[in-house]
Amino acid sequence: MLSEQKIRDKLSVAIPNVHNVIITDTSNGCGQSFDVIVVSDTFQGKNKIQRCRLVNTALKEEVAQIHAFGCKCFTLEEWSKLVV
């Protein structure tokens, strides 16, 4: 079963300058559906598709094992404007 910690660890290694990772198990604990928010300045200058591709590439093996996966990616500046 895929865990939130395993996702967090993989993203922290694969994506430079990670400021925050928020993971929500939307499968009521069975580990088959996750929503992820990643905050990294690596996303600067990239559009939404390019950002999500970075995350999906980092989690390719994990995403193949689960039922549903969603991600949202923000730079630190974008994130700070959202969480006022």
TrEMBL record:
One of its GO terms (biological process) is intracellular iron ion homeostasis. One of its GO terms (molecular function) is 2 iron, 2 sulfur cluster binding. Signal peptide: none annotated. It comes from the Eukaryota. It holds the Pfam family BolA. GO terms for cellular component: cytosol; nucleus. Gene3D superfamilies: BolA-like. Belongs to the BolA/IbaG family. PANTHER family: BOLA-LIKE PROTEIN 2, BOLA-LIKE PROTEIN-RELATED. This is LANO_0D01552g1_1. It comes from Lachancea nothofagi CBS 11611. The lineage of its organism: Eukaryota, Fungi, Dikarya, Ascomycota, Saccharomycotina.
